[in-house]
Specification:
Two copies of one chain form a homodimer.
Chain A lengths: L16 H18 L11 H8 L3 H13 L3 E2 L7 E2 L4 H13 L5 H22 L2 H17 L3 H17 L4 H9 L1 H14 L3 H19 L3 H21 L4
Helix pairs in contact in A: 1-3, 2-3, 4-8, 5-7, 5-10, 5-11, 6-7, 6-10, 7-8, 7-9, 9-11, 10-11
């Protein structure tokens, strides 16, 4: 039973404390929608919600905490609760949990990444700032320079993909790519150790350079193609390493 | 301040009750990872966590509730807490919240949908069961038959896309497409009203038929192309309707 809003509240168990919390969480969520509040706007006090809904302040506090967990509400140190900004960490934890509990496989995550990153490469080539183009280029160079420090290569690799997502000017892409951080951190090293020879490792660096160059030159078609080549090689490496 | 795990706990405010909850939530999450628990597996009792971590049962209960909100833990009526299954509703609420608080625009959601659904169409053509092919075909036909009942068209439309996502055999796709339900429900009617003439409406039905046919005939290239045509037309309709 979830403590989330948007659930119907017509069942017998609505009288138990968990369901009351759920009902209040829904009411708070509806208040944000109905009042057209934006991220950072202040919410009414716990007392005001308690009075309006005819429940204890303790229940309101619990409901606010549940909404805080999904970053719909943001509660600072003693500050009045505010409407929350979309939190990359929530997505990241959901993806991480799904992989660790084997509800999804690493290969399934990589297929989703591929679908999304063909597009982020193309959009970044069209919309990147000059500074973003420079940062993307630096991370590609940083990967090559960091060899054979795999942790450092992985750090540049993740920052490379994340900066491309950011350069799309669509926050949803950054949100989802950031959530893949955990997967990249853990499968990156596996992929590296599975590459049998030096030439394949060099190919990985060359591919990141090719993506960066296409984005720098504002060429979406070539950026997308270079990203596709990158994923084809990486997925092959994972398959060779026996990663499901 | 988030009640989520994976946060560092080295700060001064770690002694306040909210941070204690956060710390315990993290410990529970780490327990799930370290013990390699899967969805449905039972967690240790609140008392056991309280004793091991040296905190009150009340704090453990709050931490469990926070994890329940993101569906990492599932708590039934009086049952012992279990490891939760990935919850489509959590993604859906995050996306809904992001749109309503204007952190992302409808057009940005459509661009993400397009990136993902080109791939779901292709994968569905390769992996769909015969039953899924039949359901997809029925929803395409249902859209046309429902005209001019826009709510009913929208219902078939959403079920059509969701069944395609399901047919990919990759639960991440269904998770994300399901999260778009709210957007489809609200922008669907806007798109319809913006279509100036009958021929454009017929074109939408024809496109859904074309996608269904390609999936039925196991033709991933044609399925992807038909999905691209569909999105190009729909995005044009939204732009004409002035949807940001």
């Amino acid at each position: 039973m979830s403590v989330l809003p948007l659930e119907p509240f017509t069942r017998a168990e609505d009288r138990d404390p968990d369901s009351q919390t759920q009902k209040v969480a829904r009411a708070v969520y509806e208040h944000i929608r109905a009042s057209k509040l934006k991220a950072g706007d202040t919410l009414p006090s716990e007392g005001a919600f308690a009075e309006e809904l005819g429940v204890s302040r303790g229940i309101v506090r619990e409901a606010i905490r549940a909404l805080t967990a999904v970053s719909i509400v943001d509660v600072g140190n003693g500050r009045r609760a505010r409407v929350g900004a979309v939190d990359q960490q929530v997505f990241a934890i959901l993806i991480d949990h799904a992989i660790r509990t084997e509800q999804v496989s690493v290969q399934q995550v990589w297929d989703l990444r591929r679908s999304i990153e063909l597009r982020t490469a193309a959009l970044a080539a069209m919309r990147r700032t000059d500074e973003e183009a420079a940062v993307i280029t630096q991370h590609a160079a940083g990967m090559r320079a960091a060899y054979p420090d795999i942790a450092e290569i992985t750090r540049h690799d993740f920052a490379f993909h994340r900066t491309i997502a950011q350069a799309t000017r669509n926050p949803l892409y950054e949100l989802i790519i950031a959530a893949f951080g955990v997967v990249i951190e853990e499968t990156g090293p596996v992929g590296w150790h599975s590459r049998p020879d030096e030439s394949e490792r060099v190919a990985v660096f060359d591919m990141h350079d090719a993506i960066a160059a296409a984005i720098r030159q504002r060429d979406p078609t070539r950026a997308e193609q270079a990203m596709a080549d990158h994923f084809d090689l990486s997925v092959k490496a994972l398959v060779n390493a026996g990663v499901r």
